[in-house]
Amino acid sequence: YAFGYWGKGTLVTVSSATPKSPSVFPLMECGSVTRNMVTLGCLATDFTPSSLTYSWSKSGAALTDFIQYPPTMTGNYYTGISQISVNRNDWDNGDDFKCVAAHSTGNVEATLTKPIVDCQLPTVSLSVSSADEQETVFACLAKDFSPKNYEVKWFRNGKEVTSKISNTPVKEESKTPNGTLYSAASFLTVSSSD
């Protein structure tokens, strides 16, 4: 490789490397976001030469308000990234966003659509330890639920109990065609004086 600069913004690269097309990966925000916009990204890796141009579209209509960062070299290949902010309502409604990375070896594209989270209510069982003279332990097992987020609340005579509670970490129970199912447990210890 050899390169030189002539004037402001002019880069000339001379290379004997065989051109290689990029692999393109879609990037999207995770978790719940409360803003009106969602940031999406398009990552192109392992390509040469460095010249790469991105374009974005929503359901076939061209989008122009995106950022394209200059490619960086890692080893003998380049990595590039582009990002765009899209309207949360469009994202939540399941609109398709397409990123195209145009390279001398051809165009490579990735489609980004909000993933559908399969929601499944847990099977809940409650058990009580054999009472001794000092305390009783209540166990609540929530099994086969999705998504992973959960909350167990304990109540006694209509009032929430917040002390002497221990929770197990969420455990991945099984994978299904619609996603992953989880299990968790919560334990409440009640003393005989309560």
From TrEMBL:
- The protein's superkingdom reads Eukaryota
Q: Which Pfam families match?
A: C1-set
Q: Does the keyword rRNA processing apply?
A: no
Kindly state which keywords UniProt assigns to this record, in alphabetical order.
Immunoglobulin domain
Q: Which InterPro entries match?
A: Ig-like_dom (IPR007110), Ig-like_dom_sf (IPR036179), Ig-like_fold (IPR013783), Ig_C1-set (IPR003597), Immune_Resp_Modulators (IPR050380)
Q: Which residues form the Ig-like domain?
A: 22-113, 122-194
TM stretches of this protein: none
Q: Spell out the protein name for this chain.
A: Ig-like domain-containing protein
